[in-house]
Amino acid sequence: MLPKQTNNTLFFTGNHLSRPSIARRGKGFSRAAWNELESEVPGECSVLKIGSHVSFSEKGLLSAAQEAISYGATTFMIYTGAPQNTRRKPMEEQYVPEGLALMKEHGIDEIVVHAPYIINLASHKTDTFRLAVEFLQSEIQRTAYLGVENLVLHPGAFTEKDLYYGIRRIAEGLDEVLSAAKNVNIALETMAGKGTEIGRTFEELAAIIEKTSFNDRLRVCLDTCHVHDAGYDIVNDFDGVVEQFDRIIGLDRLTVIHINDSKNPRGARKDRHAPIGSGYIGFDAIYRIVHHEVAAGKPIILETPWIGKEEATKRPMYEAEIALLSDNADKRFGPAFREDVAKLRAFLRDVCGEEAGVGGNGREYVLAAWAVLHDKKQRSADKREPMERLYDLVIEHDLFPGYTEEQINMRLIGYFAGL
Ligand SMILES: [Zn+2]
């Protein structure tokens, strides 16, 4: 279903790329390394290209690759510095050859760079717009240096102006950035439509692409949480959403997929990510997307929140999410993991009773808990999210003595996955 959209007729809807231009590849510092690497990875088509956002601090690409490998990832995404600011270390200090060597060893042949959130190409303020253009130019240089092909960008927010002003302004900024020859694509991200964010509908992205003269280097990054929050029914009709994407933008533009569950119902325009299975989209819908033909061979990136009772104990769920979405949990964690999940499922059934919706993968339980949280009165009584409620039950009954918070939460992810 298409979200409500006024003035649809203003948008152009035929931005399909001519096929030859898509095969472009970065000409950066490490091009040879990438090409060599690509030819050496055996059977890459059978392996899902899945990973998460990882840190680029400390030893730059080397730490990033190490972190990704620790999650069992086959790709990853970095910000070249803090996503909230524009302070950047020179790339020469970012352990690029070391990182590439480690990636090669582990068969990681494609990664993604994400531009910082502070870039707002839709801004009507001259200084904000100039900063966005200039910073994006330097981001492209850093991306090219890494030999990375796709730089993900949030299109922008029109603030005090209007949608049409914002779209024109973004196209103006993109033209300035893309006119300088660089072999990096900019992948515009589908947005939830929070506030004055542009990119909530496929028509908005198509309009930006159509208004940008140098648009052969524009691509699109589809974020599952964002499109769900924007109103697209990816849970019940992903094929229909893909069909709309193809008709309005063109599937040849789709190059990166962000997979996140959502803390809000479809159409809420909120953009709050949840671990896979713990939100409104659910494991099954995300599994179908990950294994859909449109995702084949493309980097699939998790940006799910780290989970823990305290700030200091928060840990990423990426390793479990990647293993479960790749049907690889038994190999990754051993048979005990599956047994633990079965024990957890039986325990929840005993403690909460079947009617609480805790059987199978807990879908009914998760959705009921969110419904309570979206009710103002009920929320004030208990603000805990579904995953935390289940975690607390496990602790209360000492189901897994000696397990860390992270180990218990990973088993909850296994339970949501219906392992
Ligand atoms: Zn993003």
Q: Quick recap of the structure?
A:
Helices cover 42% and strands 10% of the residues. It has 16 helices and twelve strands.
Can you give a write-up of this model?
This protein is α/β, with parallel strands linked by helices and 419 residues long. The chain has helices spanning 31-40, 60-70, 96-105, 126-145, 163-179, 202-211, 224-230, 238-248, 283-290, 318-325, 329-333, 335-352, 363-373, 376-381, 386-396, 405-416; strands at residues 50-53, 75-78, 112-114, 150-153, 156-157, 185-189, 197-198, 218-223, 254-259, 261-262, 273-274, 300-302. An eight-stranded parallel beta barrel has the order 1-2-3-4-6-8-9-12, surrounded by four helices. It has a two-stranded antiparallel ribbon with strand order 5-7. Strand 3 (112-114), helix 4 and strand 4 form a beta-alpha-beta unit. Helix 4 (126-145) packs across helix 5 (163-179) and helix 12 packs across helix 16. The model is unreliable at 1-14, 18-32 and 39-45 (pLDDT under 50). Residues 114, 152, 154, 189 line the site of zinc ion (ZN).
Fill in the keyword field for this structure.
binds zinc ion, disordered N terminus, 42% helix, alpha/beta, 16 helices, eight-stranded parallel beta barrel, 419 residues
Write the layout of secondary structure elements.
Elements: H1 31-40, E1 50-53, H2 60-70, E2 75-78, H3 96-105, E3 112-114, H4 126-145, E4 150-153, E5 156-157, H5 163-179, E6 185-189, E7 197-198, H6 202-211, E8 218-223, H7 224-230, H8 238-248, E9 254-259, E10 261-262, E11 273-274, H9 283-290, E12 300-302, H10 318-325, H11 329-333, H12 335-352, H13 363-373, H14 376-381, H15 386-396, H16 405-416
Parallel strand pairs: 1-2, 1-12, 2-3, 3-4, 4-6, 6-8, 8-9, 9-12
Antiparallel strand pairs: 5-7, 10-11
Helix pairs in contact: 2-3, 4-5, 5-6, 10-16, 12-16, 15-16
Residues 114, 152, 154, 189 line the site of zinc ion.
